[in-house]
Design brief:
By secondary structure, this protein is an alpha+beta fold. Helices cover 44% and strands 7% of the residues. It contains 10 helices and 9 strands. The longest helix is centred in the middle third of the chain and has 38 residues. The protein is globular and about 85 Å long. The termini are far apart.
């Protein structure tokens, strides 16, 4: 059989004999029951988490801005569902905005007005006793803000910064399910949830491994370039990877970039950093305080509790010098802030020390001033 005959046989098998009507295949019988959605709360929340890791896993494909969009939306959905599942396990009225108005009918029909994310966190902390740190609470709040902007207004923000925050919340949620929800599930649902958690942890390991590799690379670069003492926490991604310009800016800050984050590539001018770490302060009389004045450059650019890459603990940091100051205190004479790092005596600024004379020495009273003799023991 030649090639033409083979093609003709094949065409007949597919299309039928020319001129003859081809018999239509019998349709497959349909089930009489409609398809059912079977997503009870914990399974539903874990399904959202599975979607999150699919969008964030760099080992599968490059994370795009669209991936970040759906990761944020689905992560916030997972937070709300899983938090409510834990509140339900404690008592069904806790998922209502106002527990005093709760009815079983509204719960069964899912017509209730349920708790907001902030209410859920407060009840988990204060009523259920779930340990949610301030850092975790801050990350959860920021995620809610990102989600609201995406859902209602559209979000324009650095994708890497959003990714870093999402990864932190994802890590928290997986631990939350394991410690706060699994003990309240039935045997079958426990096994199903544990299988899902194993898969999620593996994917989370990929995400964290990617983040860790980037941080290690950035850390090595900053160390080699000797920039660790002028690298502070980034306001966007909260990684300690924001490198300040080595040349101090003049105030008000010149136009242009003052700092660049090596992790999320965010750029910030001096005013943004001062708003973040150097809030305005007043003294007890309602007058502007000198608490933010740098002891070295005399500018109001001294931030407190600033995370600097070269330091193990938060420190005072001047964003104009830039300079690390371990400890500050007001001068005993004029009240001006001075550097008292390693100083044991009462702090005095150089101006007050220079103007201090013998006549200014305090006169201390002795026993003899009250008619007592030291020898009269």
């Amino acid at each position: 059989m030649n090639d033409a005959e083979l093609l003709r046989v094949a065409a007949t098998a597919v299309w039928g004999v020319p001129g003859q009507r081809r018999e239509r295949a019998e349709p497959r019988p349909r089930s009489s029951a409609p398809p059912q959605l079977d997503f009870p709360p914990v399974r539903n929340g874990l399904d959202y988490l599975a979607s999150v890791v699919e969008h964030l896993d760099e080992t599968e494909s490059e994370v795009t801005p669209r991936d970040m969009k759906y990761a944020v939306l689905h992560l916030q959905a997972a937070v709300e569902i899983l938090f409510k599942a834990r509140l339900l396990a404690e008592h069904w009225t806790l998922v209502f905005t106002n527990p005093g108005d709760a009815t079983r009918r509204e719960l069964d029909e899912a017509t209730l007005k349920s708790v907001t994310p902030d209410q859920a966190i407060a009840r988990l902390r204060n009523i259920v006793g779930v340990p949610i740190s301030d850092k975790e609470g801050k990350a959860l709040k920021k995620l809610t803000e990102d989600r609201n902007k995406l859902q209602h207004f559209g979000l324009t923000q650095n994708a890497l910064a959003v990714e870093a925050r999402a990864g932190e919340v994802l890590d928290f949620l997986i631990c939350f399910v394991d410690t706060q929800l699994v003990p309240y599930l039935g045997p079958e649902e426990q096994q199903e949830t544990k299988r899902s958690l194993r898969t999620l942890r593996k994917a989370l390991g990929n995400i964290n491994s990617y983040m860790e590799k980037r941080m290690n690379r950035i850390g090595g670069e900053l160390r080699d370039e000797r920039l660790e003492n002028i690298t502070v926490e980034c306001p966007a991604c909260e990684k300690v990877t924001l490198v300040l310009d080595e040349v101090p800016p003049t105030l008000p800050a010149d136009e242009g970039v003052f700092s660049t984050c090596r992790f999320c590539s965010g750029v910030f001018d001096l005013d943004v950093l001062l708003d973040r770490w150097v809030p305005a302060s007043w003294d007890m009389y309602g007058k502007p305080s000198d608490a933010n004045v740098c002891p070295q450059c005399d500018q109001e650019t001294l931030g407190a509790d600033v995370r600097v890459r070269s330091e193990p603990e938060p420190v005072y940091f001047c964003f104009a010098c830039p300079r690390i100051i371990k400890e500050v205190a007001p001068c005993q004479g004029c009240g001006r802030q001075i550097d008292v790092s390693g100083v044991d005596t009462s702090p005095w600024c150089s101006s007050c020390e220079d103007s201090w004379g013998p006549e200014d020495e305090p006169q201390y009273e002795g026993p003899e001033d009250y008619g007592f003799s030291e020898e009269a023991g």
